[in-house]
Amino acid sequence: xxxxxxxxxxxxxxxxxxxxxxxxxLDRELVKYDCLGSIAHAKMLGKIGILTDDExxxxxxxxxxxxxxxxxxxxxxxxxxxxxxxxxxxxKLGKVGExxxxxxxxxxxxxxxxxxxxxxxxxxxxGAVDSxxxxxxxxxxxxxxxxxxxxxHMRKAMPSSVALWCGAFVESAKDNxxxxxxxxxxxxxSPLGTxxxxxxxxxxxxxxxxxxxxxxxxxxxxxYAQMSRGKFEVxxxxxxxxxxxxxxxxxxxxxxxxxxxxxxxxxPEELCTGSSIMPQKQNPDVLEIMRGKxxxxxxxxxxxxxxxxxxxxxxxxxxxxxxxxxxxxxxVTLKSLEIASLVVSAISxxxxxxxxSMTDELFATERAxxxxxxxxxFREAYRRVADELREKGS
Length: 394
Known about the structure:
Elements (H helix, E strand, L loop, with lengths): L12 H8 L2 H4 L4 H17 L5 H17 L11 H13 L1 H4 L7 H38 L3 E6 L2 E7 H26 L18 H8 L8 H36 L7 E2 L18 H24 L14 H24 L1 E2 L1 H6 L7 H10 L4 H16 L1
Antiparallel strand pairs: 1-2, 3-4
Helix pairs in contact: 3-4, 3-7, 3-9, 4-5, 7-8, 7-10, 7-12, 8-10, 10-11, 10-12, 11-12, 14-15
């Protein structure tokens, strides 16, 4: 079977390999979603009289088979899942399979599949964030009353606690969920029926396909449907980057606080790796990788933003290059959230070490405010306490 766009001329193999890239691999993730889009599209074509009821039934059955089997192969020469699916339908159903592309382009087809994929992944991310929040709250319930130093400039500053530390990440996670909600709201509009960016010369029912696929609304302007590719991905990656920003800080804190010199937290051996030369080492590699993965996701965001910029309105093949980094950013974030939940659930708090660390200087501000309560001006109280600490130090 040929490519969807092929008109008879033979394409140079080097150009084919270069333009296909790794789409035939990435699109394994999209087969289910492309089939769902095609099912909705087939039903719509039946409603407007392009397909008979029997043709719709046969197409829907074959597309559902692909989803249920979950084993459709995408060959490099097929370029993508769209071609592989249409080839399957044509081989199985003959001329009926050739009718499935009526009223759409690969452009709105891939947009629709990606939107459905992203919406699913946003849901998974939301669930993974909730799981991490649950583990942090569990840690707080177990050991939240344990005092520990609060730091500014990497120096002891004021009293803190395990509960206060956990609560900071919980509260930030709630803001991250709001960013995911914003990304979801953008994704939750159906581009199906916009074709290559200028609509279809058929009286299609876009609301029907939007409803069938569970979108809350139709993306009306067909040019904007193409312009939104890259824009929506950057928004999603930004939200994921904020999640990873928190995991970066969480990892940095846990690496520091689990150092033997601090010893506030302990990591179990099953979460640590060792050294190939030093027998005593128990390394927090999992946290170091998590810390570094923030930069991986931010690089994905920058890559998509860069590829999408400087392009005029309408479709450009450059958009193909946004698929890989977006999928990679999603995958890294989901795996990192899973690991973060695992680590937080497994860490233990060394109450004795935490209490030992609550040294005098942490209460300097409190002493200054005791003097303020007695009527001493704050600046004078500040100087008095500073002088006391200086004298003790000398």
